[in-house]
Amino acid sequence: MKTFAFSALLLVAVEAQSTVSAWGQCGGESYSGSTQCVAGYTCIYENPWYSQCQPGSSPTSATSTVSTPTSSSSAPSGTGKLEWVGVNESGAEWGTAYPGTEGVDYFFPSTTTIGTLVNEGYNIFRVPFAMERMAVGSITASLNSAYLTPYSNVINFITSKGAYAIVDAHNYGRYNGQIITDTAGFQTFWNNLAKVYSSNSKVIFDINNEFNTMDESLVFELNQSGIDGIRAAGATSQYIFAEGNSWTGASTWNVTNDSLKTLSDSSNKLVYEMHQYLDSDSSGTGSDCVSNTVGVDRVEGATAWLRANGKKGMLGEFAGGNNNVCLAAVTGLLNHLQANSDVWLGASWWAAGPDWPAGTWASFEPPSGISYQYYDTLLKSYAP
Ligand SMILES: *[C@@H]1O[C@H](CO)[C@@H](O)[C@H](O)[C@H]1NC(C)=O
Ligand SMILES: CC(=O)N[C@H]1CO[C@H](CO)[C@@H](O)[C@@H]1O
Ligand SMILES: CC(=O)N[C@H]1CO[C@H](CO)[C@@H](O)[C@@H]1O
Ligand SMILES: CC(=O)N[C@H]1CO[C@H](CO)[C@@H](O)[C@@H]1O
């Protein structure tokens, strides 16, 4: 209500100013431009930091915080809040020297900065690891405690704070660079690892990061064997995140991964994890976003797929650069997920981690990561 009064005042004060173009920013903390949209568009309040010119002649409610999705899929029935908002904590998967040396080839995330983010309201952290370090020499090897112990310290720290920790095998469906075809061995790997966390319901198992350029039936089988291995370990209370082929992209999910809808989970806590970047090739290598609306454009097909198949989704990786176009695209994306929170459970930014240089465009490491500085206020406003 306070915000409403403030916007109304602002509107009166700047009436004489020029108009803002379609999808442009028209309000928000420290914004000083015009709040009047071009004909046919209305300035919609999204959050205290951002209002946007969206199609329509007048808002249904000036205090509405959720924009109406333009998707042609059936109407959302979201609760208006995501269950999870957080970040990736990258570092332990770095490098290709196996098992390699901690502090040289790879790094564990900082529990200090994770604590900072938890205190800000973030409640999910995806912690990538390399299977080659967890099981050295072969995927069926017993787990390597020199790597598992410090990794578990991070996981246990996160869950002790009440947040969820995603145990992410960051392997692209490969081990030592070779596509994993031994589904039984893969099941053994997950059985071994799930035993470690079987009594911790705040752990989430992420079977594999970004399968790509491999046979879809193999992706299916690896996923299914991972699920089966985890449940057979007695880890029955946890969510499992399954990723898809084609780098688990949300924008291509509806045309590459339809077969994954038949994965089965005896605990019925399976969530489809998708990734989406907003640069020209969706790779996340560029900090530019192709348009103000690309966030929504690239996920609405996945939203429709999730709803049509009665599934839940998690946007496990996303990011945008530190510029106005990306700010609009990221805001639109988060609003879309929130408006469709009946099928989207959450989102996690790529990436925090102590060893990203602070100037790396997507760095979310407190206090000086460039994206942390630019996006923290916005992102945490979506936290549950
Ligand atoms: C698939 O999803 C994309 C991205 O959201 C969308 O543009 C496209 O129309 C969808 N295609 C089908 C067949 O649903
Ligand atoms: C349909 C299908 O491919 N099912 C497979 C799922 O994965 C398990 C475990 O690897 C296989 O036993 C199934 O044949
Ligand atoms: C490889 C694969 O599973 N492709 C399927 C992905 O989903 C589309 C749309 O349902 C199917 O047509 C493809 O066969
Ligand atoms: C966009 C981005 O940061 N992608 C990263 C995803 O994770 C892999 C493995 O850590 C990195 O190599 C990518 O740069």
From TrEMBL:
Q: Which reaction does it catalyse?
A: Endohydrolysis of (1->4)-beta-D-glucosidic linkages in cellulose, lichenin and cereal beta-D-glucans
Q: Name one GO molecular function term.
A: cellulase activity
Give the domain of life.
Eukaryota
Q: Has the keyword Hydrolase been applied to this entry? A: yes
Q: Where is the signal peptide?
A: 1-16
Q: Which InterPro entries match?
A: CBD, CBD_sf, GH, Glyco_hydro_5
Question: Region (Disordered): which ranges?
Answer: 60-80
Which GO terms of the cellular component aspect does the record hold? extracellular region
* UniProt KW keywords: Glycosidase, Hydrolase, Signal
Please give the family membership noted in the entry. Belongs to the glycosyl hydrolase 5 (cellulase A) family.
The protein depicted here goes by the name cellulase
Species of origin: Oidiodendron maius (strain Zn)
